[in-house]
Amino acid sequence: MTMNALKIIRTFALRMSTVKIKDKEFSTFISAEKIQARIAELALELNNDYQDKNPVFIGVLNGAFLFTADLFRCMKGDCEVSFIRVASYTGTQSSGAVKEVMGLSSDLKGRHLVLIEDIVDTGHTAVYLMETVKKLEPASVRFATLLLKPEALQHDFRPDYIGFEIPNDFIVGYGLDYDGLGRNLNDIYTLIA
Ligand code: 5GP
Ligand code: MG
What we know:
This protein is of the alpha/beta class. The chain has a domain of 135 residues: Rossmann fold (3-Layer(aba) Sandwich). It is built from four helices and ten strands; from the N terminus they run αββαβαβββαββββ. Helix 3 links the parallel strand 3 and strand 4. The longest helix is centred in the first third of the chain and has 18 residues. The two termini are 30 Å apart. The structure holds guanosine-5'-monophosphate and magnesium ion (MG). The site of magnesium ion has 6 residues, from strand 6.
């Protein structure tokens, strides 16, 4: 194949903006530029709300690791970051019930906490995390999510900081995976087939 032909194919592939992960095909949904621009806006709000409060950002692994990092580096002044992981029941009737929160520091009493999630879907995880974290007697707890699926939400819960509200479709990229893959994509993609 000539170099020219290769270039044309690559250009075409970029314009198509589709990606195949295992058996599924996805197309670009939110570009990296849009994600970063929205994060900058959220950071403006957070910087304003948490000025001189030395907040602790708590990222929820694995999905929120990129969002947490990009948001955190927009923060001015004193602030801290840590990560937790949520293990779900793996039994037969997996109803999205949450089993355990791992890695939560016990010395968060009196601190201003911001939980950071990649996406709120049913809201089971978010509600469970809020309840669990409140038991540690922090000064305050707020919830930030890059994405929210309002149609999927099953709780009377509204995150305090929301990047984008999206339809109830399966997405990957920017930390979100399909079967462990796709987290390294800089754009967010939605399932097409
Ligand atoms: P919830 O407890 O709100 O139902 O689910 C939250 C978790 O489900 C998220 O942190 C994420 O790991 C996963 N999740 C929900 N929707 C999607 C999606 O569209 N794509 C991916 N990759 N994960 C999702
Ligand atoms: Mg998550």
